[in-house]
Amino acid sequence: MPQTFADPAAASIPLHVISEEQLENWLSEQPERNRSWLKAQGFTGALGQAVTLPDDEGGIALAAIGFGTEKARKRGRFHLAAAAPKLPEGVYKIASGLEQTVAENECLGWLLAGYRFDRYSKQSPLQAELVAPDSVDVKKIEARAAGETLTRDLINTPASDMGPPDLELAARDLAKQHNARITVTTGEDLLTQNFPMIHTVGRAADRAPRLIDMRWGSNGPKLTLVGKGVCFDTGGLNLKPGASMGLMKKDMGGAAAVLGLAHMIMATGLGVQLRVLIPAVENSVSGNAFRPGDILTSRKGLTVEINNTDAEGRLVLADALALADEESPDQIISMATLTGAARVAVGPDLAPYFSDDAGFVSALETAAVAQDDPVWRLPFHDPYEPMIEPGIADLDNAPKGGFAGCITAALFLRRFVTQSPYAHFDIYGWQPADAPARQKGGVGQATRALHAALTPLLNL
């Protein structure tokens, strides 16, 4: 269950957020017994410290959390989340020290620190609850926390329980929650409905491939989100080695991200006509798996030479993007765990994205900083276009040479969007080690930034 704020009417413990620079002044305002207690506990205001002070009845009179120095805070994010697990059970209300400019992100971090993936084993819950400060938009922050929780749960669930039918069920549950409309094209119907590459990539699996199409809203700008839903990627006949296959349950991270973002949009009632497209497949090995050297014809009519069956994500996205573009929406955004090259370039914490739209870039970059949701722009570099043109077909799904892999993948996808503004995110979708508010495992990237950017971008 997603974490929510505590009832503001509940009895609460005053919580003071104290930076190292503020410590001396704050201590000067405290009674001697508090100063002595804090000194005995070694409280210096360093990031992540958490101390409670007793009252005369043996309860908790107040709590103090260290907020470090400005330099230390710049090295990370969600600093209250680092301290929240160290507090004893109780309801806490911030009494001083947290500036309004950072309150929403810090409070969101507290909620995210309570995330537990407990489907298969019992997890100890976060004991400390937080009352939202008056300055915080509770509905918005809880919607973002719930969207992130959905994304994490979907990514963390193994492919044994998160195949294409299960991803469809998750989308249907979300549609039901928000009174959205949903249709699904499955199996051989993909061929009759002209989604040949989605069918080709997923036909070797026991669980049939499908295209999930969800719509919500009837007024406002048209926004279409497209998420890669490869529920497990063996690499196909270009079989991955074991070390590379171990995390492939997360190869539907793009689908998980757009579903989480869709929840944020619908729960906060943004005035858009939202469409979510998810090609959901497994890239498996069997006698009818597609082969290196095959040439496929896409929904758009472009032919694609298959030079590596492990570059399958761009194939299923291509058919979905072509469908999205046929409506000429005001903005198309794709999200996918697409290339290892993106991870080599920027690591797991940054979300690389591609856009040639100055307005989109400005809105996103501003929102990413404000939301502590970092992104990094990479180029649709036109001089690399010949790298994805093999000669025998219109496009090559896996250019040789090893250069600029994430850029050539983005250029490939851009060929299928000709009528609408387009941005592509090549996310990792995985937190490799525990960090404040981001436990090891599946994680959303760029979705909070996008949620915040949509209002200025689409003039909502």
UniProtKB/TrEMBL annotation:
Q: Which keywords accompany this UniProt record?
A: Aminopeptidase, Hydrolase, Manganese, Protease
Q: Which domain of life is it from?
A: Bacteria
Task: State the top-level EC class.
Answer: hydrolase
Instruction: List each copy of the Cytosol aminopeptidase domain by range.
Output: 308-315
A Pfam match is Peptidase_M17_N_1
User: SUPFAM superfamilies from the entry?
Assistant: Zn-dependent exopeptidases (SSF53187)
Stored CDD domains = Peptidase_M17
User: One Gene Ontology cellular component annotation?
Assistant: cytoplasm
Tell me the Gene Ontology biological-process terms attached to this UniProt entry.
Answer: proteolysis
Record GO terms (molecular function): manganese ion binding; metalloaminopeptidase activity
Which family does the similarity line name? Answer: Belongs to the peptidase M17 family.
The protein's name in its UniProt record: Leucyl aminopeptidase
Q: Which organism is it from?
A: Sulfitobacter noctilucicola
